């Protein structure tokens, strides 16, 4: 068993696509943790969708044995973290389990929005930070200006930043030396009462729930009885081990180490992330603080295209939620779409990933309603309630005001695209807070409503800046705004799945665009189909799908005109009666397509 002084725990943080997973691959390969035969790209990314998209979704850990140039043996516990803003919760959770961070910056692109956000998280966690400039093998690499950016924007010394190419392996040995020389060893006494942090948990079909732990004090051994402080649950430890990167059993985990345990726990929801694990008897008194539970910020309804797939969808959602504690769900019924589930996500990418996993792994075709956020509806008699689904909004006469969530957004953009970014943020009801320049790049801070961001803000931002902008945000509280519920009525009947919350000033514009799109998507019937957008009892936009007509006068050859008029009047009366009792069939792709629109 290693001494505490010979252990180094660190995470790798960076902006999207700056080379975190590739650097983790090289660290494992060059230390012999993984043989060349077993080596493959993004080794720590276990999900197929992670490999295909080239992104990390779940933070993963690996134990590396390293012999330094001085001849001393070290144990390195590495956590590879996601770079996308939706999964920043994974980053903050990982940082509490380690003492240092490798801040990876692309030497061709410089500091980006998530670089800044992750660096601030590392500073807040009291980490020792080692700046690493990656991709120096590329012709466009320019390390000196990037070092100045790190010093000016983040405020950490980058004069001794390690320059590497994670792809070729150049400079990786210097990274390993910097880890053992510059990062602090963990603190902790193996003889103290057990105090371990529950970092993550997931379900394994053979072992039950597997718990990832970081031991801060004491020693955890196989067969001991442990207690989860927040729930008070008692379990007996079945097995203990570390990741190399496959699960490898050991006899014990001591202070300073990161590993896993299994204890015949059957449900992931019984293991709360951030909980403290201690011994049943002679346990620690104070729990480890600082980790907050994840809070979903975006909600949408998921319904099967074929209603007979409802049971399959329920099974699929239950299985995915076993390994994703940040994914919340509850049953929901819609008059237009039938039975489904109201699901909560950390962001739009998280929503896309879950939806794609259900469609791919369980072969269920889904219809998703409009993404929505949590509103606070204040009532006239006092108090407020949280509104997750616009169709559940109470009577406007009982409401004194509606608050919407706001975000603090940071955008990095080349100065020649700055005007387009400012225009886009202004269109989305943004309030500019700060604008600074570093070289030929601008950093702009905005106060934006989350509702305006979840639709397609990121896509529009990439479009107007030709892909050069980077975007990061954090939730900044609630503010009262002039919001209304807009309904879509088809043939006079409201369609609950198409109800959305909009600002009153933009309701007419958004309603007109949705009606025009629905007119293209709804097939013609034997009667006219009116499509209306309404706020309360007021119709703000309307389109009409024309009726399919049959030429009832075709059999009349000449003769009196009154005969033709009589036939046309009879047809008119029949269509009026059909419209009153007829049912409009809305194709499922209409829901998906109409909700993708931006309304600009």
Instruction: State the strand order across the main sheet.
Output: 11-10-16-7-8-15-12-13
Q: Overall mean pLDDT score? A: 83
Helical content, roughly? 25-40%
Strand element count = 31
**Which structural class do the helices and strands define?**
alpha+beta
CATH architecture of the largest domain: 3-Layer(aba) Sandwich
Tell me the radius of gyration: 29 Å
Write the layout of secondary structure elements.
Elements: E1 7-14, H1 20-30, H2 48-53, E2 60-67, E3 73-80, H3 88-95, E4 100-106, H4 113-124, E5 128-134, H5 143-154, E6 162-163, H6 172-182, E7 195-204, E8 208-217, E9 219-221, E10 225-228, E11 234-236, E12 239-243, E13 247-250, E14 252-254, E15 258-262, E16 276-279, E17 298-304, H7 310-322, E18 328-334, E19 338-345, H8 348-361, E20 366-368, E21 375-379, E22 384-387, E23 399-414, H9 418-427, E24 431-438, E25 441-449, H10 450-454, H11 457-464, E26 470-481, E27 483-490, E28 493-494, E29 500-503, H12 504-521, E30 529-535, E31 538-545, H13 561-581, H14 588-594
Parallel strand pairs: 1-3, 1-4, 4-5, 5-6
Antiparallel strand pairs: 2-3, 7-8, 7-16, 8-15, 9-14, 10-11, 10-16, 12-13, 12-15, 17-19, 17-20, 18-19, 21-22, 21-23, 23-25, 23-26, 24-25, 27-28, 27-29, 27-30, 30-31
Helix pairs in contact: 12-14
């Amino acid at each position: 068993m290693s001494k505490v002084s010979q252990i180094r725990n660190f995470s790798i943080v960076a902006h999207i696509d700056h080379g975190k997973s590739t650097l983790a691959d090289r660290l494992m390969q060059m230390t012999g943790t993984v043989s060349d035969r077993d080596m493959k790209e993004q080794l720590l990314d276990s999900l197929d969708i992670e490999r295909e998209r080239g992104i990390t979704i779940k933070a993963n850990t690996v134990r590396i044995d390293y012999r330094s140039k001085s001849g001393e043996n070290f144990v390195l516990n590495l956590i590879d973290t996601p770079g996308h803003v939706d999964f920043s919760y994974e980053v903050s959770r990982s940082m509490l389990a380690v003492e240092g961070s490798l801040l990876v910056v692309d030497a061709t692109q410089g500091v980006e929005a998530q670089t800044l956000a992750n660096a601030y998280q590392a500073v807040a966690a009291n980490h020792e930070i080692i700046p690493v400039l990656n991709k120096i093998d590329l012709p466009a690499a320019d390390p000196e200006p990037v070092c100045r950016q790190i010093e000016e924007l983040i405020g950490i010394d980058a004069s001794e930043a390690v320059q590497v190419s994670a792809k070729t392996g150049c400079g990786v040995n210097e990274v390993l030396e910097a880890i053992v020389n510059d990062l602090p060893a963990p603190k902790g006494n193996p003889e103290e009462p057990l105090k371990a942090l529950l970092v993550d948990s997931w379900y394994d079909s053979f072992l039950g729930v597997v718990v990832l732990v970081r031991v801060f004090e004491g020693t955890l051994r196989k067969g001991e009885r442990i207690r989860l402080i927040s729930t008070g649950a008692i379990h007996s430890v079945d097995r203990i081990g570390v990741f190399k990167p496959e699960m490898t059993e050991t006899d014990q985990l001591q202070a300073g180490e990161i590993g896993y345990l299994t204890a015949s726990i059957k449900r992931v929801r019984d293991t709360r992330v951030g909980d403290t694990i201690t011994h049943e008897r002679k346990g620690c008194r104070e729990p480890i603080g600082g980790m907050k539970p994840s809070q979903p910020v975006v909600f949408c309804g998921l319904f099967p295209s074929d209603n007979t797939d409802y049971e399959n969808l329920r099974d699929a959602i239950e299985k995915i939620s076993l390994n994703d504690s940040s994914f919340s769900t509850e049953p929901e019924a819609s008059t237009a779409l039938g039975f489904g589930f109201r699901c909560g996500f950390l962001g739009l990418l998280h929503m896309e990933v879950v939806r794609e996993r259900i469609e791919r792994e369980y072969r269920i075709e889904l219809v998703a309603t409009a993404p929505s956020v949590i509103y606070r509806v204040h009532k006239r008699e006092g108090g407020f309630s949280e509104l997750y689904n616009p169709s559940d909004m109470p009577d406007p006469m009982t409401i004194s005001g509606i608050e919407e969530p706001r975000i603090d957004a940071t955008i990095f953009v080349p100065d020649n695209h700055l005007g387009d970014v400012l225009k886009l943020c202004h269109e989305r009801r943004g309030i500019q807070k700060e604008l600074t320049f570093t070289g030929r790049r601008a950093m702009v801070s905005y106060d934006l409503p989350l509702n305006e961001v979840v639709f397609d803000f990121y896509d529009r931002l990439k479009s107007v800046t030709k892909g050069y902008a980077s975007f990061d945000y954090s939730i900044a509280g609630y503010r009262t705004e002039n919001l209304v519920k807009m309904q879509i009525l088809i043939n006079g009947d409201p369609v609950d799945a198409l109800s959305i919350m909009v600002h009153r000033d933009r309701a007419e514009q958004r309603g007109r665009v949705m009606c025009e799109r629905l007119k293209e998507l709804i097939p013609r019937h034997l009667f006219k189909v009116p499509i209306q957008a309404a706020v309360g009892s007021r119709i703000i936009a309307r389109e009409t799908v024309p009726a399919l007509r049959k030429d009832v006068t075709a059999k009349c050859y000449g003769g009196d005109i009154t005969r033709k008029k009589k036939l046309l009047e009879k047809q008119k009366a029949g269509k009026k009666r059909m419209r009153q009792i007829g049912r409009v069939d809305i194709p499922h792709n209409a829901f998906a397509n109409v909700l993708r629109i931006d309304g600009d």
